[in-house]
């Protein structure tokens, strides 16, 4: 098997050449694919490894198989939602690279909101000595939905702010990291106690639109919702209604069901909603390639790959 694996196919809508340059500098033979015909040619010539980000699924022909797909990001939900039968024998995703930047993003916005930074800035612009009482995170309750490497990074920073930490996950594997752990049947019980709810879960058939009117209604009126997981975790119409009726205080959204978020979408100008363009944890070419090179060596040696996706659980 190892003698036949000589070339890696690369797909990225805008940065494929950067990935190709780095990998070839490290001795790999690569092929950039920009259209369906490129993919078909690679498969016909025996290429069995694909490094990609959101490759159009329609490019695969029926019954085709690729030995290994390495995603350039942490999420692989697009593969499972668009394929009845996956063309990949194994899938890996990037792990261990996004926890720090995403956790920093989460707490940047928690502090921005609770310290009323926008209000203070507006007062400065108006040259007003306004008496403002900033809030604080100390002693508040944060609920972290998803306790993988990113969720753990958020929990670590919450501890630094002396917060009470709740956690929700399907496996309970890291329940010892939080003050109280909940399973996926206990959303309303958890959010009813939370001052902040942070979504970091993978998108699967079980988590699709999990944040709906029922969960939103159970949240505190002063609660803040932050989504750095996947856009389709939230039923957007239900969130819009919750924001318009002031069911919760604020929502910080870095991910959306359809991206880019179209300019006429009502979320843009909904009071209390902060929108960022999926920038909380960006993939870096060097980091992704170094992870891939480590996995490539493992693949050649027949060893288990890092970041292995459970094809049954879909993450």
Element string (H = helix, E = strand): EHEHEEHEHHEHEEHEHEHEEH
Annotated CATH homologous superfamily of the largest domain: NAD(P)-binding Rossmann-like Domain
Report the β-strand fraction as a percent range. Answer: 5-15%
**Tally of distinct domains:** 2
Order of the strands making up the biggest sheet:
8-7-6-9-10-11-12
Major sheet = 7 strands, parallel
- What is the name of the CATH architecture of the largest domain? 3-Layer(aba) Sandwich
Instruction: Determine and state the CATH class of the largest domain.
Output: Alpha Beta
Helix count from the secondary structure assignment: 10
Span between termini: 27 Å
Structural description of this entry:
Helix content is 31%, strand content 15%. It has 315 residues and is α/β, with parallel strands linked by helices. The chain has two domains: 7-96 and 283-301, NAD(P)-binding Rossmann-like Domain (Rossmann fold, 3-Layer(aba) Sandwich); 99-275, NAD(P)-binding Rossmann-like Domain (Rossmann fold, 3-Layer(aba) Sandwich), CATH 3.40.50.720. Helix 8 links the parallel strand 9 (196-199) and strand 10 (224-227). Helix 1 crosses helix 10 and helix 4 packs across helix 6 (149-160).
Considering the chains and any ligands shown, give keywords for the structure.
single chain, 315 residues, alpha/beta, Rossmann fold, 2 domains, five-stranded parallel sheet, 10 helices, 12 strands, elongated
Task: Summarize the model shown.
The protein has 315 residues and is an alpha/beta fold. The chain has helices at residues 16-25, 36-44, 77-82, 99-114, 117-125, 149-160, 187-191, 213-218, 236-244, 285-301; strands at 7-11, 29-32, 49-52, 68-71, 91-92, 141-145, 164-168, 180-182, 196-199, 224-227, 250-253, 273-275.
């Amino acid at each position: 098997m190892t003698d036949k694996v000589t070339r890696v196919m690369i797909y990225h809508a805008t940065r494929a050449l950067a990935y190709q340059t780095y990998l070839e500098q490290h001795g790999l033979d690569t092929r950039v694919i920009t259209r369906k015909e490129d993919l078909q040619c690679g498969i016909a010539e025996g290429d069995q490894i694909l490094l990609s980000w959101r490759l159009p699924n329609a490019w695969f022909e029926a019954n085709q198989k690729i030995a290994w797909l390495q995603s350039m990001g942490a999420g692989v939900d697009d593969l499972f939602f668009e394929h009845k039968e996956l063309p990949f024998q194994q899938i890996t995703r990037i792990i261990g690279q996004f926890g720090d930047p995403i956790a920093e993003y989460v707490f940047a916005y928690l502090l921005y909101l609770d310290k009323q930074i926008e209000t203070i800035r507006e007062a400065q612009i108006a040259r007003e000595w306004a008496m403002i009482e900033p809030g604080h995170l100390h002693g508040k309750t944060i609920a972290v939905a998803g306790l993988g490497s990113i969720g753990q990074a958020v929990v670590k920073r919450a501890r630094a702010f002396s917060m009470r930490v709740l956690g929700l996950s399907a496996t309970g594997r890291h329940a010892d990291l939080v003050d109280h752990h909940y399973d996926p049947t206990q959303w309303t019980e958890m959010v009813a106690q939370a001052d902040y709810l942070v979504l970091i879960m993978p998108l699967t058939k079980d988590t699709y639109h999990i944040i709906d009117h029922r969960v939103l209604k159970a949240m505190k009126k002063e609660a803040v919702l932050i989504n750095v997981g996947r856009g389709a975790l939230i039923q957007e119409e239900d969130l819009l209604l919750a924001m318009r009726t002031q069911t919760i205080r604020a929502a910080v959204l870095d991910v959306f069901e359809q991206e880019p978020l179209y300019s006429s979408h009502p979320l843009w100008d909904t009071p209390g909603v902060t929108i960022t363009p999926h920038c909380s944890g960006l993939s870096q070419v060097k980091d992704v390639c170094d992870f891939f090179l480590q996995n490539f060596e493992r693949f050649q040696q027949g060893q288990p790959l890092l970041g292995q996706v459970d094809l049954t659980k879909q993450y």
